[in-house]
Amino acid sequence: MHPRNPHAARYNFPELVQASPELAAFVIPNPTGDDSIDFANPAAVKALNRALLKQHYGVAHWDVPAGYLCPPIPGRADYLHYAADLLAADHAGVIPRDKSVQVLDVGVGANCVYPIIGTQVYGWRFVGSEVDAVALRAAKSMVAVNPVLAGRVDLRLQSHKENIFAGIVKPREEFDLVICNPPFHTSAADAAAGSRRKGRNLGYAKTKAPEPLLNFGGQSTELWCEGGEEGFLKRMVAQSVPLATQVLWFSSLISKKETLRSAHYFLGQTAATEVKVLDMTQGQKVSRVVAWTFQDEAQRQAWAQRRWKQGVGSGQ
Length: 316
What we know:
about 15% strand; about 325 residues; transferase; nucleic acid binding; alpha/beta; Rossmann fold
């Protein structure tokens, strides 16, 4: 994991339980005798997330509606730390750490995890877009009851699912960074098959439940879309072109190695001036972030000088 990620070590369950006592009901010994939880239990996963967000990010009230995505916090944090390094490269190695940085989270979800981490660790402002009205209402409610998020997170409904930026990014509005965790699967059936594979890996496939248990949850818009991850990225790249002067860096998480090859092809058809791949490793899992910009090095440095306060924050 990224060296700034506070979740790189084993979870400190005594501290987490102290921060969020409800977690105690789910703490069990793992095969080596260490404290853990049953990661096949959605309630346990939600309780762990709630404790992590409270202990590390000061969010006292966090929840997601039943069946909605409850993402693993360490991986979400990793994405933002690597993205911070991306911005620092255009800022003399200094990470900009205040509200002068504005980030667009495409598909913020009911969990609102990226804005929570980004606002609390780096002081950034966030706009979160969402096509699911239920998820958006849940995220808005959660932001409203947590004072640490007040005035830092603006949540917007995307009423046209085929659009990624149109209807969300306002005329002349600027974003220093776009982040995205795109739907991974190509169909509901593909998503269900993936859940069954995860179930076998976690060791709970013997439950004989008629539907696969999603320990991290997820609605259709969170798990799959036409064309899957590759199709979504293709649309995202094409729709990023008109915003070449309004966004410094676009980025998206990529789960499949094959999608990375496609990403380079899609971006090769545009006027992108630089494409970077940020490798992230969490245990045995390897994922990547592809980032691209339409501005050259001099333009990016001028952007940083114009928008970000000089001398704020620290380097690596």
